[in-house]
Fold these 3 entries.
Entry 1:
Amino acid sequence: MREGSAIELEDASVQLAGRAVWGEVSISMARGEFVALLGANGSGKSTLLRVVLGALALHRGRVRVLGERAGARNAAIGYLPQRHSFEPGTRLRGVDIVRLGLDGDRWGLPLPLPGRAARSRRRSARERVARVIEDVGGGRYADRAIDELSGGEQQRLLIAQALVRDPELLLLDEPLDSLDLPNQAGVARLVNGICRQAGVGVLLVAHDVNPLLPYIDRVIYLAGGRAVEGTVEQVINAETLSRLHGVPVEVLRASDGRVVVVGQPDAPALHHDRHMQSSLAAQGHAH
């Protein structure tokens, strides 16, 4: 294992219900690096996050996270799981959602400490919550009920929840999913700012790499039970993706710099956005 790595897997294999998800995966991520984790549905992206958190044991191989065994440094990891939406009628305020990142195991309620210790702890928690809410630009709406907020506003507060313990590593499972294009760009820009200014390593699962292109250092791409890592140019090209998927894949660069990938089965949406889908369909490439 290399010194200074935030995440490192060596010859790692995972099985679920006796079925191999991926195998012989050797990848690494440096501290303070911004990495996108890409791949089709079912390729094992969320499974990899579970391995990093120590929630799922490897079938074989090794994993180290922040220099220790997986799970040992979870207090230094901010984790935003995949979600679809809040249930209507969820009356928690945005600030309450953020506070759950500090003491969610107690449903946001501080331990009954005596007198001055209790006051000091509550003040410290309030200050920390307020700071991260301002960091994500959520001050204007954090006191409103979470189910009244837009998808982009909700996602910013959930990222604040993951940041409230001042983590060294941030794991984000599809934080751009179901957001419109301006909110995707805004959240991507926010995460990049956190990564660069605070030196927090970020591993972000995404279906669409395009909103991340101005910011990410590298990508990890899962397909066919294998993984490839490198820069966008090294990974998202016809030769590499054709080899991973086992079928011919074409990679195009749009005039605005966006990546368009055509040909792989169950393709992740990294090759299109809501505006590109109609044009691809007209060209006979939609699937």
Note: The chain is about 30% helix and 25% strand.
Entry 2:
Amino acid sequence: MSFSVKLERLLDHYRDLQDALATSTVSDPQEFARLSKEYSDLTPIAEAITLLKNTEKEIASLEAMLADPSTDKDMGNLAAQELQELKNKLPDLELSLKIRLLPKDADDERNVILEVRAGTGGEEAGLFAAALLRMYQRYATIKGWACEILDMNETGIGGIREASVSITGKGVYARLKYESGVHRVQRVPETEASGRIHTSAATVAVLPEVEEVDIHIDEKDLVIDVYRASGAGGQHVNTTDSAVRITHIPSGVVVTQQDERSQHKNRAKAMKILRARLYEAERLRKQAERAASRKTQVGSGDRSERIRTYNFPQGRVSDHRINLTLYKIQQIMEGEALDEMIDALTSEDQAAKLAEATEA
């Protein structure tokens, strides 16, 4: 089937959906909701197809005008200029449409649980982990997303050993999914008297947030322990057994939660994190199976992969997956320029998928 025939069939299907929704021929509310979503998802694709087809028609019309010997010189000059402008636009319109036609990541619209852990580098690693967490919190604010801390284990000098946050909003996973991996920092620690540059690291994991219907967890596979929560410096120590530790026996995944004073709330948060981790483990397993046949991919989502270096003395941030360096380290750490990095990663991933689709 040719590409143009595929586009025509897509437009026909889009019009059928439009008619069905407009005439209220669908009585089942669930089916109506499904068709409405499909129509909404297809709308930008249909608009892109229509724009491409209209441009192609205009090009054909201008070419016919220029081939007509009765066209006067001035009109011909204007037509030739417009024709060249349209021909210049055509490749971008085709590329935009092909990107829209790429299969979507089913998790792109999900909210996420973002986990940050200090890696090698002692106290400096904890301080860097805290800086990364602030970067994502600020980025979430810029994007208009809600950010809630689920769990945080602080070092006591402004750093963190590990933290989990829930980020909710439109298309959160689509924007943050490339952030999973090892982030390395090179800078002079404030505690370093000799001014030597230290290298330390922190690990980021971006997990799609899932509901109970997305992944089934059997209660008999869980060991749930409750204990008395502890706080820094003896403050805010609970006097009841409100902290919760959940162990998922088949996978060995352990989640602890003690930020809330209510055992019930801690358990709910712990289950949310457990579901996300189990879902992510299964997603990565399937991805690894597909990766064997995929020639190019931007990041595996593997949290052991070193993805980025933040060099403070040189004021640069380098992403090793796409060989991109931006000399905007302060703006990136403030969340303001993080979009530039994410846009580049998204474009590279789309290009790789387009290349695969062309070869297939």
Note: The chain has a mean pLDDT of 86.
Entry 3:
Amino acid sequence: MDLKTFTSAVMEIAEERGVAQEKIIEVIEAALASAYKKEYGKKKQKFEAELDAKTGKVKFWQVKQIVDKDMILAEDEEVSEDKEKVRFNPERHIMLEEAKKIKPKIKKGEELKIPVKTKEDFGRIAAQTAKQVILQKIKEVEREEILKEFKEKEGEIVSGICQRVEQRVVFFDIGKTSGILQKSEQIPGEFYKPGQRLKLFVLKIEDTPKGPVVFLSRAYPKLVSKLFELEVPEISSGQVEIKSIAREPSSRSKIGVTATEEGIDPIGSMVGQKGTRIWAVINELGGEKIDVIEWDEKPEKYITNALSPAKVLEVKILPKNKAQAIVPNDQLSLAIGRDGQNVRLAAKLTGWKIDVRSLEQVEKGEVEEKETKEEKEVTEKKEKKEKKEKKKAETKTSKT
């Protein structure tokens, strides 16, 4: 077995799959140690190998654990939970006194590496075993690398190329693996075609028997804020902060922002010169409308801003997290929006249940309330009078 050629071939495979060379050398060394044991070793023996990837030369050691008399179990003694206690086996263990003759400073519990004769002539079965171990280990390492990389990317944006479009799922090439864009995470009305490059939000990664699966999204609200992070340097530097976001994919989004430093215009930073920044995000989302709202710690002010582009006259804070927004008569339909979208997104953005009323409705409501109160007073007086007359009649009857 030409180890130099073999190692080069394995390294090429590792490089193609994006696996670190150090990991691959460890894998090959483990496989060679396994092959050495199968060909030349005995049962219970443990071997280690060290490979020089440049020359293809390999060294082997037999590994034994250092034990002393206190660590050895007697023949009639049962194995206890004490991990230090072992049943002595000359193939796996060596007494401390013997080990010190080879390495004077060694201590009990440590491992001693004893050099063994280097062998490169492995039989067909041993070589086949080594090959299987290497291929299996490469898959495991590759799997671990993908899991580690995309675990770190959860909640972030990746760039993907559309590979395949199925009825309810779209597959994207996102680097070392493929990502899945399910129907529920697609933007309504958005079409995907092979070769198309898009920005995608990494929802989560799951380890399955078939390998790691990366779940992607184009509809998740945070995709909008992450796209703005790419376009707006003030967000990365911490000068502008995104406080909240409300989104109805393919239609409209509202995003609440604030400046953390004086002299910074948060809305201007998000929009950019001549709208370049916001248009870059809108184009990435296929023309989805985006309203940038200035966040305010006062709920009345924030709700007023959130109902933009409608003008708001007054906001009343009511119990149970409710708020009433009063708008001019000609602004009512604009404040509510088509199918209630504007007020619905404003409610999601602010976290308040918003009831939008026109000035006319409020005034009419006050008049109606006043009329109802007067009617109630008249009814009460009438009932009181009737009761008094009835009581008087009853008294008169009893006297008779």
Note: The radius of gyration is 38 Å.
